[in-house]
Amino acid sequence: MSEVSTARFEVTVAESEAEHAALGAEIVARAIDAAVRARGSARVALSGGSTPGPVYRKLAQMALPLDRIDWFWVDERAGDPTSPRSNFRAARADLGLDRADAAARVHRMEAEDPDLAAAAARYEALLRRTFGVASAVAFDVMTLGIGDDGHTASLFPATGAAAIDDRLVAAIGAQPAKGLEARLTLTAPVLCEARTVLVLARGAAKQRPIASAWSEGPEDEVPARVLLRAQGRVVWLVDRDAYPTG
């Protein structure tokens, strides 16, 4: 493991997939513990995909105060929550959130609703009830990834999604040419308010988008650049192959 600090974020380079998972789980667990100690509960926002799976499975082995953790989702694909494509399904299985002491505090996005705009509005209302109407929606810890095209959450390039700032949750239309189904996603203002953001990336294909995300430029071109204006702690946890060398 090696660490790099910048004015805007921290970078930790893991030497193996096992170390990547262990470090990611430790960062999330420490953020949860700090939140419970400070405020009595922790609010976590989860991303899907294959990269966070090992982190979540390692986290599930830890002694977490499940009766004090609320679990939310960063984004979700439109469709059945039991589908193999569902971010909810994958994260719940990896974390063991179907347990009785956790299930009542699991808050999934209802992306199976044909009216995604209505589903987005319901999730936004849930966030407002949870965090307070007059308070910032500041998750204690949030996991994110970065796509080969530079997207994060479901904020995709050249769609204007990174610029949405008038709502907390947005419905994102399908992009058939790219094979992307419609989605629900937290918007950039929510990502930027999180107290701790953990960005997970592995593999050489991530070098170029990570380098772009770390540099100034249009957010619509590389939506992960929104994290350059994050208010809280941002940790990029990458493996050696993903670390930009140029």
UniProtKB/TrEMBL annotation:
Pathway: Carbohydrate degradation; pentose phosphate pathway; D-ribulose 5-phosphate from D-glucose 6-phosphate (oxidative stage): step 2/3. GO terms for molecular function: 6-phosphogluconolactonase activity. Residues 17-236 form the Glucosamine/galactosamine-6-phosphate isomerase domain. Keywords: Hydrolase. It catalyses: 6-phospho-D-glucono-1,5-lactone + H2O = 6-phospho-D-gluconate + H(+). The keyword Disulfide bond does not apply. Gene3D superfamilies: 3.40.50.1360. It holds the Pfam family Glucosamine_iso. Coiled coil: none annotated. Its EC number is 3.1.1.31. GO terms for biological process: carbohydrate metabolic process; pentose-phosphate shunt. Belongs to the glucosamine/galactosamine-6-phosphate isomerase family. 6-phosphogluconolactonase subfamily. This is 6-phosphogluconolactonase. The gene is pgl.
